[in-house]
Design goal:
Blueprint: H1 5-11, E1 12-18, E2 23-28, E3 33-36, H2 56-67, H3 78-90, E4 92-93, E5 99-101, H4 116-132, H5 134-150, E6 170-174, E7 183-187, H6 213-220, E8 239-240
Parallel strand pairs: 5-8
Antiparallel strand pairs: 1-2, 2-3, 4-5, 6-7
Protein name: Peptidase aspartic putative domain-containing protein
């Protein structure tokens, strides 16, 4: 609110409180008001100059340090490190370029107990399910023939039992919305044997090998054009020695 000098002395009362040399609280009909002068502004100009002389080689070196990937070996746990060392020391490639690897066992396979009877019970249960669902039965037939035709499966005839054997049950998961794979077959390598051990329990877990989704999205947005591809049946292209 702005008041002119004609009414100023009509609103002022007698008592006042001095805060310091510049500020005073003056009582008025509107309660205490602050009066006083303001300190003069500092008209001095301040100018600063910062000059840094750094060679081009040092700048390039820093750039590559920022852009380089973090040393992942510092973040590997003991089991992941074991898997990497096992792969480097035991893998090879055949004439077609396929990788041939050995299983990274944490325990001797001899610790696996009897598993055939459990696998037979699971197979009988699967047969009953297939007999009740003709669509599922046909999809399972297609899956079996595909594996045979591609050489990813071979028929085993009656023979003497090996000293160490592990029978893996399998079952199908229907995916009606998928046009490419309406049936996804799951092989259960976690099925326990009579000793309580399974194939998965005695194998080292190499951890996640895929990049984090955030890093993938950033890399995808880096350039104007992005290419996407998929490797069909990728894990079945790796042979076990």
């Amino acid at each position: 609110m702005l008041l002119d000098a004609q009414v100023f002395f009509k609103i002022i009362k007698a008592d006042k409180i001095k805060i310091n040399d510049s500020i005073t609280l003056q009582n008025s009909v509107f309660n205490y008001i602050v009066t006083g002068g303001l300190p003069t502004a500092d008209d001095k100009l301040h100018c600063f100059l910062l000059s840094e002389q750094e060679g081009l080689e040092n700048l390039i070196s820093k750039f590559w340090q920022l852009e380089s990937l973090e040393d992942e070996s510092l973040n590997l746990n003991s089991q992941t490190k074991l898997c990497e060392d096992h792969f480097l020391n035991n893998h090879r490639r055949d004439q077609t370029g396929h990788y041939i690897v050995q299983m990274a066992f944490l325990k001797e396979p001899s610790c696996l107990g009897e598993s055939k009877q459990t696998a037979i019970r699971r197979l009988n249960s699967l047969w009953r399910k297939l007999e009740a669902n003709t669509n599922l039965q046909q999809l399972y037939r297609n899956f079996i023939h595909e594996y045979l035709d591609m050489g990813h499966m071979e028929q085993v005839f009656e023979a003497s039992e090996p000293t160490v054997a592990y029978y893996m049950p399998h079952h199908g998961v229907l995916r009606p919305d998928s046009k490419s794979t309406p049936l996804r077959t799951v092989v259960d390598a976690s099925c326990a044997t009579s000793t309580g051990e399974s194939l998965n329990s005695i194998l080292a877990n190499g951890g996640v090998i895929q990049d984090e989704l955030f890093a993938i999205l950033l890399r995808f947005r880096k350039n104007r054009i992005g290419l996407i591809s998929d490797i069909k049946k990728m894990f079945r292209m790796i042979f076990i020695d």
